[in-house]
Design brief:
518 residues, eight-stranded mixed sheet, alpha/beta
Length: 518
């Protein structure tokens, strides 16, 4: 065998070891646990044949604890670039078959290299997380690797989309990288996230809790709000990432991709005229309105199980990607509370950072009252949503479906905070407060003097208040509402508004950054 042939054989052997990761036995264990391997995940996420691996032969440098005898090419992370629907994407996948996917100094450098390349080339970065945490044998070098990643997450925020999939364990300091990224997906039954695990909690606080209860997909989807999407398995997770990317631009200088379809621009939806109950206190599902007007009825909801009194997600109108924000009358009457404000504000800021127009469907009776909300800081948290909408410079369109009361009217993308097009249905009620509450204040003395006839007086005054104030006509007369439309016409009006504002250019005063009330 010539020297050249030996070199080629040696390279092929190293590449094969890299492809096998921790070996066949550990791959089988990964499959038995219901999980795909890192390479299988990469291949399933990207367009077929498009993956180009980077640093496949990197190995760790640790010489303590016998680690010099355990050199596996790739060192526990598979990374590189490829395409999703023909568009460039960078990604890395932690390989649990190699040292439990633990982070070493060298594989942290691999991840950082890919993140730098993603920013330089203006492409999304996707992280597939499946790791036991920091590699203990490397001590502070491993911890430093985490910090290097955190810094790049922060600098890339608002520059390129960052997506994290939790497809196994993610604990301790490792959780903070996904937390800084834009979207987190979690897989049911096989993934979990927490800063301190059940054993530590049991020792320190004497609480008994399982990994699933503490940091499983269901917990973070519904209780903490850490996870944006919950999926059934690895394949569904990767498919969800592909769909999410289809709505997003590659970077903050690009426009979102368009996807023309067959759904007519002027399509009317007669059923929407009957959607909103005549009784203003009766609930209805705002998602029926959303799917009734967007292209092909396709709505990708974000944070579906968290703060259900507000709905956010992506859709298309006339082929153009938009972000949807909507109050949900079917849950807590659609009031704004702390969780809803946080959920809405973060989504609005993401859309604004990446040039995704915002469409708001408003039906909000106000902010949730009570000591729990006040003590929890509803003032500062509600102000986050106000700040986000007011700061946003993307095209903003609002449809007032029914209630728009008090400060919540101002917050939900009102004309006063630079919203471009404000529409209202005939059923809209725009006022400082609901008619019943207003009458109780305005006519307190008259009601008290009415005695047994108070109910009749109240009913008459409520009707008068609703006719004079609690309707869209006063707002339209002042220009706070641009048009009053029938619900069936919503789709046409929204697409016209998006076309009108397509070339919008708006800025904020020069500054380093604002000071959002955190």
């Amino acid at each position: 065998m010539t020297g050249r042939e030996r070199a080629a054989a040696d390279l092929e052997e190293r590449l094969e070891r890299s492809r096998l990761g921790g070996g066949r036995e550990r791959i089988d264990k990964q499959h038995a646990a219901g999980k795909l391997t890192a390479r299988e995940r990469v291949e399933l996420l990207l367009d077929p044949g498009s993956f180009v691996e980077v640093d496949a032969l990197v190995t760790h440098r640790c010489t303590d604890f016998g680690m010099q005898r355990q050199l596996i090419p790739g060192d526990g992370v598979v990374g590189g670039y490829g395409t999703v629907d023909g568009r460039l994407v960078y990604l890395f996948a932690q390989d649990f078959t190699v040292f439990g996917g633990s982070l070493s100094e060298t594989n942290a450098r691999k991840i950082c290299k890919l993140m730098d390349l993603a920013v330089e080339n203006g492409a999304p970065i996707v992280g597939l997380n499946d790791s036991g945490g920091a590699r203990i044998q490397e001590g502070v070098a491993s911890l430093g690797g985490y910090a290097d990643i955190f810094l790049r997450n922060t600098l890339a925020s608002g520059v390129i989309p960052q997506i994290s999939a939790i497809m196994g364990p993610c604990a301790g300091g490792a959780v903070y990288s996904p937390a800084i990224t834009d979207f987190i997906l979690m897989v049911e039954d096989t993934s979990y996230m927490f800063v301190t695990g059940p054993d530590v909690i049991r020792t320190v606080t004497h609480e008994e809790v399982s990994k699933e209860e503490l940091g499983g997909a269901a917990t973070h989807a519904a209780k903490s709000g850490v996870s944006h999407f919950t999926v059934a398995n690895d394949a569904a997770c990767l498919a969800a990432i592909r769909e999410l990317l289809s709505f997003l631009p590659s970077n903050n200088l690009d426009d979102p991709p368009t996807r023309p379809g067959d759904d007519p621009v002027d399509r009317e939806e007669p059923a929407l005229d009957e959607l909103i109950p005549a009784d203003p206190n009766k609930p209805y599902d705002i998602k029926r309105l959303i799917v009734g007007v967007v292209d092909d009825g396709r709505f990708l909801e974000v944070h579906a199980a968290y703060a259900r009194n507000i709905v956010v997600g992506f859709a298309r109108l006339g082929g153009r990607s938009v972000g949807i924000v909507a109050n949900q009358p079917a849950y807590l009457a659609g009031v704004l509370d702390i969780d809803a404000s946080l959920k809405g504000a973060r989504f609005v800021r993401f859309c604004d950072a990446f040039n995704v127009p915002l469409v708001t469907f408003e039906d909000v009776p106000g902010f949730l009252p009570g000591t729990q909300q006040e003590f929890g800081g509803i003032i500062k948290h509600g102000a986050k949503l106000l700040f986000a909408f007011a700061e946003a410079t993307v095209p903003k369109i609002t449809v007032i479906a029914r209630k728009a009361y008090g400060g919540a009217y101002c917050v939900m993308a009102s004309k006063h905070i630079r919203t471009d097009v404000n529409l209202a249905y005939p059923s809209a009620e725009i006022a400082v407060m609901g008619p019943e509450g207003a009458v109780n204040i305005l006519y307190r003395r008259e009601l008290a003097e009415a005695g047994d006839g108070a109910a009749e007086v109240r009913a008459r005054k409520v009707a008068e208040y609703r006719e004079k104030f609690s309707n869209p006509h006063v707002a339209a007369e002042r220009g706070f509402v641009d048009a009053i439309i029938h619900p069936r016409e919503t789709r046409t009006h929204l697409i016209r508004a998006l076309r009108q504002t397509a070339a919008k250019r708006q800025s904020v005063p020069p500054k380093k950054h604002g000071n959002i009330p955190l």
